[in-house]
Amino acid sequence: xxxxxxxxxxxxxxxxxxxxxxxxxxxxxxxxxxxxxxxxxxxxxxxxxxxxxxxxxxxxxxxxxxxxxxxxxxxxxxxxxxxxxxxxxxxxxxxxxxxxxxxxxxxxxxxxxxxxxxxxxxxxxxxxxxxxxxxxxxxxxxxxxxxxxxxxxxxxxxxxxxxxxxxxxxxxxxxxxxxxxxxxxxxxxxxxxxxxxxxxxxxxxxxxxxxxxxxxxxxxxxxxxxxxxxxxxxxxxxxxxxxxxxxxxxxxxxxxxxxxxxxxxxxxxxxxxxxxxxxxxxxxxxxxxxxxxxxxxxxxxxxxxxxxxxxxxxxxxxxxxxxxxxxxxxxxxxxxxxxxxxxxxxxxxxxxxxxxxxxxxxxxxxxxxxxxxxxxxxxxxxxxxxxxxxxxxxxxxxxxxx
Length: 402
Hints:
This protein has about 400 residues and is of the alpha/beta class. Helix content is about 40%, strand content about 20%. It contains 17 helices and 15 strands. The strands form three sheets. A seven-stranded parallel beta sheet has the order 5-3-1-6-7-8-9, with helices on both faces. Strand 11, helix 11 and strand 12 form a beta-alpha-beta unit. The longest helix is centred in the first third of the chain and has 22 residues. The N and C termini lie close together (about 10 Å).
């Protein structure tokens, strides 16, 4: 079959599905505007890049409509790129798009006979969701109205789709009740067979990453961007206190200063700079990695004794499932995307997102109790197995009608 994928970035959520479909003999084309910086080549896939025709003109655009203006330009550019395929008589049987940026809103118009499948990740709500979780993020009426309007491009594309896919039940619950019965819950998964073997190499990796350190304890905190949505302000307070209490503790902060979700600091001071100015972090035991390669990231996971993961009620991070799949004991926030996956004292320790004392005590419990640590590690592996990308492939084959 001929299958067309569309996403602003290549390969994004489809990085494991694409080679699997190629292995089954399908003819794959991917439309994108740019490559992710860490993107690997995937053999057997034709990639077509597109460019936006002009910058968005927000000066004369109502502020609520900024996103739909950008989405329209995105969709128009993708449509034109897709038309080039039609002109060479490459007509897809299935068209899959990531919904929310506008890249898929006009693909039905180019290929009206194709099965249209959309990966939908988020529907904006002003209450009982991400934006009203943080205490300093109360919304004005104007912000509430703008947030509702931000769903316009998602609703426009959903109207052209045959099938909807979202990664978790929590994400599904954010969509209007009208759509929920039509949504397939199917996580893209992680490479469990590989991640589950990382601990086999921990001794050699530890001697490489922490040379001449006797019996180090390792805590990992991973977030693509250091930001409030992933609990960075709370994590640094907990971690700085743990570093004072545990002289053998080494901490790896994997990520960098940027904003993926939510808002940056009002004073524009980078979060890591704020952290180091306000809390003690011994330079010889605190490792700020910045953006790193996947192999380096996996090395760090292999030596982790405990993983701290905090998130507001939002999209679940890949790093959370990757840490579970590596068999790392988890200390995680008591928020819906997390509690959908793990249960307190079984597959991780659940703590209040804002309670620093509780977070510190939970990490200490893991590091002080080998029996608890081993139990959490074994159960983490079982959870990770359920989210193996190999298991999710069968679900995608069904959804795509292959």
